[in-house]
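Appendix B.2, paired examples.
Example (i):
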Amino acid sequence: MHRNRPWRLWLVVVAVCALLCCLRLILGWPFLGHEIPYLAITCATPLMIVTGILIHRPTRPAGWITLAAGQVLYAVADTIYDFDLWTTGEMTEPTPSDVLYLSSTLLIGAAVVTFIRRRTPGWDLATGLDALVVAISASILSWEFFIKPVAGDSELAMSEKLTEAAYPILDLMLLILAIRLVLRSGGRSTSLRLLLGYLLLMFAADTAYAIVGLLGGSNTSEPITSATWIVSLGLLGACALHPAMRDFDSPSRIAAPDATPARLTMLTCAVLMVPGLQLGEHLAGRDVDVPLTSTACAVMFLLVLARMAGLVAAQRRAADTDALTGVRNRRYFEEALATECRRAARTGYNVGLIMIDIDHFKRVNDTYGHPGGDRVLREIAQRLSSGTRAGATLARYGGEEFIAVIPHISAADLSPLAERTRKLVADLPVAVTDQTLITVTASIGAATAPGPLAEPAELLRAADQALYAAKSAGRNRTVLAPEVHRPAPIQG
């Protein structure tokens, strides 16, 4: 069978079952009339996830296996719940199905967290702040409309209150994870859209079910809610059956989240929601929990400030970093060199400079194209970074030139350091394509100056002359310039 067909056929089956569920409103079917299609999809969904794993063989299946385990618990919980409801007609919470439902939600949340961390491994702080803002806002709403009425119901036992409160809390967790997943978390594949649809529809159906329960229940709402659950589970099964699931949790190429319009809109709505609730409750003449809402507003304000500070820091790092290689850029280096020279003038310690030029780089570009040249630059930058002495500043100075300023170093120590740097470049081949390795060498010029005599222009001139000498002597070698001295005064 073609790999694109299973998920489409599955969605057709899901649509038919959802339609049969809704027909109960028209045909007046008994309880099992809409529960049989619902249970069929519930029990089939974990099988679809396992089928997707077997067909597409994802490289890291842990998240999918956790998702399948959560759906198995969900199917067992649904079966127990419907059997008890059909045979006894009523139940006292907590029931075995409640334990299974809640455990299922925790497993599904764990699976989504696994996907998120693998897709965007470096986003934890920024997205954590965003998630906290949304979580605080949504928690206040959930407390006000769902948890508070249950907590204040004197007819419920404590175990029943805890069970009833656990459902909106865990649903809220899934909603926050869905929001975290959608905001620029790597590529927007079909599997991602299907998983988001599942999470959002499941949250909507659970919320509708809770609202109907608080309002006293409605026979007409059961088939519609069940149909919504069917569609949400159908989207989950299709997510696993789609070929895109194979690379679903591949790391994102985006280094860090930006302040996109969607992200800013989400944060704005979250921040305004709590004061809006406070104002609405006041205008409606109901009691307002001022300490709770005020504390929530204050915490969200501080989190937004922290987020803004993080964005400013990220922009500053971007302005100081070479986009291709990830090392510092020339502008940052010139400031760092001037700072080190001023500090050396005060303290008297030596300042060293190493200038690295990749040999025959134009030939690499002409032979393998700019993509091959870029790979060489990135690899060399990574090697130089790994061998840079603590306290030194490495930067890309020009097209194929790198430069490093090293504080507290003498000429005797600078020469072997420069030679080790040359060997870092030349000793191992560099991959210019997935199948081609080439040897790359570098010519290095080094210079040092005593603190009182350290001048950026003089150091750069001396290192550049030493680099020129290394090139003229045949390349792939290190030349140390004579120590920079103050020019002798002109005799009158």
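Example (ii):
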Amino acid sequence: MSRFHNEKDYLHGSSECTGVLLVNLGTPDAPTTKALRRYLAEFLSDPRVVEIPRVLWLMILYGAVLPRRPAKSAALYRSIWQEGGSPLMVYSKQQQHALQKEMQIRFKGEVKIELAMRYGNPSIKAGLERLQQQGARRLLVFPLYPQYSAATTATSYDAVFKVMNTWRWVPELRFVGQYHDHPAYIEALVKSVKAHWKAQPRGDLLLMSFHGVPKRNLMLGDPYHCQCHKTGRLLAERLGLKDNEWRVTFQSRFGKAEWLQPYTDKTLEALPAEGIKNVDVVCPGFTVDCLETLEEIAAENCENFKQAGG
């Protein structure tokens, strides 16, 4: 038996199209302990995500993390869960549908858009197979991470390669590596911040909070830290901010190792003592609202900032 899947559905002369696979990180299927355990097991088992000796980490993961963390995470997800699912899934689908509508207008059905999650559902395998069934002979894989990191962008590549390693007819393949300094991306951030300032009084400081990664990743050559700071600088320049009117920080650290600093939570707790009582927080690394923006920033860190005197 061949190791490669046959192309039984292919007919010579059949119509072809270009496929775009949007890839986001992922979300549990439900805000339950069982669903979170399954999701976290897949996510935290990825060697791109946790780069410590494999045997040691799996002992920690299954002995300490998975018995405790899922219940706590499930409670946090329940606080933001929507009728259509997790916010990340709901808003990612909205992006997919809006982009498909635009492509239909521009290219008359010659471009098909599918959504996939690196962890959980819909899987990258399922997304690729849907595009294959629609006749996609040219494929653009678009990880929805503006700033490149091995723990996000590269692992999306890994998953695509793993699937295509079993295909007999592999399509022409391209990847979006990063878009941290693309003018359209910066302009979208500018519009978002200005819309907030129009709706709410402008704060004393604009805090640009990016998802953190271990500092070790930077030392090993990951460009993520540099690209976050470039995004921050370009956004500040377009908004006409002075150096003391904005900062870049990093959130969502996990474990005891040192992560990229300054930390968002520690910064927010310290700002009132510096005389900064009103802060605007934007999260440029997240393409849609999710647990990290809605619960960690808008709820938990907002409350901590107020408790500190903000």
